[in-house]
Amino acid sequence: MEQCPMSRLIIISNRVQPPTGEGGGNQGGLAVALSAALRESSGIWFGWSGETVDEFTGKIDFQRNFGVTTATIDLEPQDLDEYYNGYANRTLWPLFHYRIDLAEFESGFAEGYERVNQRFADTLEPLIEGDDLVWVHDYHLFPLGARLREKGIRNRIGFFLHIPWPPYRLLLSLPNHRELVETLLAYDVVGFQTRDALECFHDYVRNELGGTIDGNRVTVGDHSVTAIACPIGIDADNFVEASQSAAARYAHYRMRQSTNGRDMIIGVDRLDYSKGLEERFLGYERYLSSNAGQHGEVFLLQIAPPSRGDVQSYQEIRSSLDALSGRINGAFADVEWVPIRYVNRGYPRDKLAGIYRAAKVGLVTPLRDGMNLVAKEYVAAQDPEDPGVLILSRFAGAAEQLTDALLINPHSPEDICDAIAQALAMPLEERQARWRACMDNVMSQDVVWWRKRFTDALEGAAAAAAA
Ligand code: ADQ
């Protein structure tokens, strides 16, 4: 049993995912890990309920599920438009994923974002006590720490960014970028997924804020913050277990039956333009064009549940993928074989684990990704005796850790095509060696390791400040 954190933990994220069962049920790995930490420290998970009301009241709905207390507030429809669909997902998300062409800069969005962060701070403040550790998550809530400080909160407050941090010059295109970045100085610890993201943050601090970097300490004027790379992992033991569950074995068996001896390539992603799905389909199309002998021998199963459907760029990527998969299937399919099975829905974790295990190749090709947990799940689900091959974009955060995957440039259809050919022909010994190296990392730097690394830094930073 890992040691309990001494202080009560308060976690804040845009949405709250309460546990659905003792073992986590179908909760994602992140929610399972955070729930475990909250349970051990009798903490609280605070965030938006997902519901809207005509007028914001600040009323907090407390619930307790499987030992975890959640506290949620309802927002107004205008908040949803400006803060969530607006600034978070139409301004920050595209810009932080290097898609300045898709980023929309509306002053109304920025105002709504500030308003909601203020609302979070106002409603959260009375819940914070004594030496609670406060841990804020992701790009929806950059300013929350600063707003809490303004209200006199002196507790240790940390921030973890799940998405990439953009290069310095790219960030300059965000109106009020300086104001946004400066709010990070209110935290005791700021965590990034990768060294690359951390270095981009350092560049901004040096060039734009005139700050200095000394090891983990970033100093601007009389403010100092600990900034670390702290890559998130999956709940690896739990996922390995899930991949051997009855549901997974059944899914695996059904999948093998339906593949008819064909090799399966798997892709699993939220339907998002950052995931490189169009480029993936084009890379696979190139593979089909240049490997006629493989027609009927291989297929791509792409699982992509729609997300953020209120945002236009998400509607566009969806119709573009519909067209592209239709075109490729129309060009290559015959009466007994369809090259792409394209599925727009989610699956329970157990079943997903069984499907991963049945796939010879895991194709994970985001154009940019903070980490990408699918890559790690694919590795964890493999049969050690006969593992599949992970093809991974060098622009996913996971590429810093899974260096024995086949690393590719997701913008290049040729790279994807060559990697598929290499993966399908890879001898067993090489597959095992590459998988073992990836698996060692997935197991040792799992989600509990990540959580502990972050909360230890948060406790340590406070000790340093007090010394
Ligand atoms: P996401 O962009 O959502 O997360 P990712 O890390 O791949 O991306 O996590 C997706 C999760 O959803 C995985 O656990 C996956 O199994 C699950 N999922 C996807 N499709 C599914 C389906 N059809 N059915 C069931 N489950 C499905 C953001 C950042 C990432 C970062 C994570 C965590 O964008 O870079 O890794 O947060 O920090």
UniProtKB/TrEMBL annotation:
<dbReference type="GO" id="GO:0003825">
    <property type="term" value="F:alpha,alpha-trehalose-phosphate synthase (UDP-forming) activity"/>
</dbReference>
<comment type="similarity">
    <text>Belongs to the glycosyltransferase 20 family.</text>
</comment>
<dbReference type="GO" id="GO:0005992">
    <property type="term" value="P:trehalose biosynthetic process"/>
</dbReference>
<protein>
    <submittedName>
        <fullName>Trehalose-6-phosphate synthase</fullName>
    </submittedName>
</protein>
<dbReference type="Pfam" id="PF00982">
    <property type="entry name" value="Glyco_transf_20"/>
</dbReference>
<dbReference type="InterPro" id="IPR001830">
    <property type="entry name" value="Glyco_trans_20"/>
</dbReference>
